[in-house]
Amino acid sequence: MSPTSPGPAHGAESTDLEIPTKAATIYDVAKAAGVSHQTVSRYLSGYAGIRPQTRERVEQALAFLDYRPNRSARTLRTGRSQRLVALTHQIDQFGPRKIVQGASVAARDLGYVLDILSLDLASTTAVESALESVQASECDGVLVLTATDEMSHALRHAHFDVPAVTADEADDGLAQKPTQLSTAGFPALVSHLDALGHRRIAHISGPAGWSASRNRVRGLQAALRAADLPEALILEGDWSAASAHRLTTRLLDTEAVTAIVAANDQMALGAILAVTQRGLRVPHDISVTGVDDIPEAAYICPPLTTLRIDFGRQGHDAVRRLMAVMRGAKEPILTSQHSQLIVRESTGAARE
């Protein structure tokens, strides 16, 4: 459009209007219509509260500029933005990172873009600010990929105008309650340890404020009870190798356990180091297992026995559940539990 030519919003006719040679943006449409870009975005999202005269100006500008958003055909047909927002935490950790990757692939396959928002759960103000930004954004749905007590507290005061589900193992999900994946696999792990003669078992858990950590404790203890074995001694870590190293060092001073079940592979690494620094051998003196099956698990000394969790599938299933809720599904879509016991060299027969 030439600088001196009035746009369609002003109702002027001109025979010398220049059709833009590059794709128009919502900012171009907003300028031509004499409205804010937020108003244009709301129109494209199907918002019904726009005044008729404003709506007409936006429509004229869209037609004049031949506006086509990147996902225009589907967006204009469905009234959706084709955007989802994922709330996550500690994305540098193996599990959360793989969940995000799985969710991103699933969203892409369904024609959506997944925006990732990593939260600082140590700051209530930061969490609340992030949630406010999500509430103000134009998205079709929200995925909560981290279930912690801090997150649950923040969500109790949040209101989303779009469907929201939790992909992680929440004790009480947002709109759905997914299968608690961290309870899966422990019967197989306990059966393996039982066959090796282990009865004095310690568990280094994740932080008590994480639903996944609590679920892993429940899963392990339930499997031990089902096998008629004593419940495990619980020591609370923080997912880090350093925390498990510290806890294992204390454990070896006071308890005579024959196996340590760490709640993730990072903590298993810390436990193995503490055992070897004490002059003991894994698995001759103490067996050590983990959960996750990180890529390094097969290459440490000794190679780690662990429960492989399909985090990517967990993220994929979460997107599918969200799509179901967006379609108006009333019942949750429960996923199968994706875990596999990987037996390597860090477990052996219990010492007498």
UniProtKB/TrEMBL annotation:
Keyword DNA-binding carried by entry: yes
CDD domains attached to this UniProt entry: HTH_LacI, PBP1_LacI
Keywords for this protein: DNA-binding, Transcription, Transcription regulation
HTH lacI-type domain ranges (all copies): 24-78
GO molecular function, one term: DNA-binding transcription factor activity
Entry-linked InterPro entries: Cro/C1-type_HTH, HTH_LacI, LacI/GalR-like_sensor, Lambda_DNA-bd_dom_sf, Peripla_BP_I
Domain HTH cro/C1-type: 25-68
Protein name in UniProt: LacI family transcriptional regulator
Organism lineage: Bacteria, Bacillati, Actinomycetota, Actinomycetes, Kineosporiales
Organism: Kineococcus aurantiacus
Keyword Phosphoprotein applies: no
PANTHER family: HTH-TYPE TRANSCRIPTIONAL REGULATOR GALS (PTHR30146:SF109), LACI-RELATED TRANSCRIPTIONAL REPRESSOR (PTHR30146)
Listed transmembrane segments: none
Domain of life, per lineage: Bacteria
